[in-house]
Amino acid sequence: MEEMEEELKCPVCGSFYREPIILPCSHNLCQACARNILVQTPESESPQSRRASGSGVSDYDYLDLDKMSLYSEADSGYGSYGGFASAPTTPCQKSPNGVRVFPPAMPPPPTHLSPALAPVPRNSCITCPQCHRSLILDDRGLRGFPKNRVLEGVIDRYQQSKAAALKCQLCEKAPKEATVMCEQCDVFYCDPCRLRCHPPRGPLAKHRLVPPAQGRVSRRLSPRKVSTCTDHELENHSMYCVQCKMPVCYQCLEEGKHSSHEVKALGAMWKLHKSQLSQALNGLSDRAKEAKEFLVQLRTMVQQIQENSVEFEACLVAQCDALIDALNRRKAQLLARVNKEHEHKLKVVRDQISHCTVKLRQTTGLMEYCLEVIKENDPSGFLQISDALIRRVHLTEDQWGKGTLTPRMTTDFDLSLDNSPLLQSIHQLDFVQVKASSPVPATPILQLEECCTHNNSATLSWKQPPLSTVAADGYILELDDGSGGQFREVYVGKETMCTVDGLHFNSTYNARVKAFNKTGVSPYSKTLVLQTSEGR
């Protein structure tokens, strides 16, 4: 019943209705709140001036909102009158329910008078805080609005149902909390006392058991208040006007404005409207039931989205990690090639350095020897060796001139990594809607953490891959014979878990599963090896 609480609160004060009245727009207000939002209208717009001008407008006709400037398009609430010298603008405020209301524009009534009996200033206007429809009050003021006795009764029952729990009246020692009340016996029972003292058989089977709160309300309800006519306060409602859709008294039919209207018996219309309300509630109840089931579906979707998100993120991380691993492996291969080229260049240069060093040492030695020979003063001895030395010098000079002083290797690495295609592929890496050319289910994945054996039975569990977009109609689980023989089907169905009984003890079984739909069958999953327990 807690959902009903907002229906029982006044839109102005935000509290439970106190002496609620019914406005012509069918909305309700507390009498005190109705007085607080009254606004005084200009004299030229009073009901008396309208009747004097022959306009023929009823006291309960709604005002022309454009003419009276009650409702501004720039403001979602309603404001005070504007454009009249005799009606100063009254600032508006907000109620606890967020509805814009007016503070009292007149002194509060004396404390000894109720809001209904307190005098209302002439030419007063009230605007419904819910639908913003405005109405000029007649001489009766707030007494011209009928009181909502039904709403008062509902509020009383609701407040009583929120009170402390009732105790069983038949418990001998410590009374337990009552669970039912028998309307015929007028006794509150707990479950043990009801079974012992009020069994559902024999004459007691016809008794009506109700919840304790409902029983307490039925106990405390006073005789139904008979509502009186708003036009003839001493007369009770006895008929129902079909045209005006309101209860009336016999004087209204004889001398009032309902004399020419179609009327029906109040009791018959009461039952008819109750029946219509019950039928309307049946349809609304079906919608509410569908809404509850829809909420359950949405909450299930929230859980599934969270689970799928975790699986999808794990799969995405695994795919990116695989790309990173592949890139690292390729990086290692390229670095190996660079190191190989590096070693080759160093070897060539170092060999050339070694060869050139030896040659230079030999040349330097020849040059020093020739210089010492030139220092000799013996002509005949010099001429004996000069031809040979001249030939050696020319030969050595020729050896240095055949590219010996040119590097055999450059310092630059003749390698250039072409990474632009890979960078472009990485930048283009994105999610795509997977549309398999052949709508066959993806290969199921055996969930190793949930697969186990116990004695001579085995339990296997599997699931569809998280990125699979093709639904599976069912699964086929296969086991071999425990000795490496052929596979045989042990389960076909929609479930993703199966327990296989009757296996051989101390045997090794191979299990695999595949999915199927109307199009075909998926590949088999990886084979799982299961070992049953040793025999007893």
Helix content: 25-40%
Largest sheet entry: 4 strands, antiparallel
Q: What structural class do you assign from the helix and strand content?
A: alpha+beta
DSSP summary, beta strand count: 21
Oligomer: single chain
Span from first to last CA? Answer: 60 Å
Rg estimate, integer Å: 51 Å
Shape verdict: elongated
Mean pLDDT: 79
How does this structure look, described?
It is a single chain. With 536 residues, this protein is α+β, with helices and mostly antiparallel strands. Among the domains are: 1-41 and 119-164, Herpes Virus-1 (2-Layer Sandwich), CATH 3.30.40.10; 268-401, no CATH class; 445-531, Immunoglobulin-like (Sandwich). The protein is 35% helix and 14% strand. The protein has helices spanning 31-36, 47-52, 65-68, 149-161, 191-197, 212-220, 250-254, 266-374, 379-400, 420-427; strands spanning 20-22, 28-30, 39-40, 93-94, 100-101, 124-127, 134-136, 180-182, 187-189, 209-210, 239-241, 246-248, 263-265, 445-446, 452-454, 457-463, 474-479, 488-493, 497-500, 508-516, 528-531. The strands form seven sheets. Strands 14, 15, 16 and 19 form a four-stranded antiparallel beta sheet that branches. Strands 18-17-20-21 form a four-stranded antiparallel beta sheet, with no helix packed on it. Strands 3-6-7 form a three-stranded antiparallel beta sheet, with no helix packed on it. Helix 4 crosses helix 6 (212-220) and helix 8 runs antiparallel to helix 9 (379-400). The longest helix has 109 residues, at 266-374. The chain is elongated and about 175 Å long. The relative contact order is 0.05. Mean pLDDT is 79; it is low at 44-94 and 97-108. It is found in: Cytoplasm, Cytoskeleton.
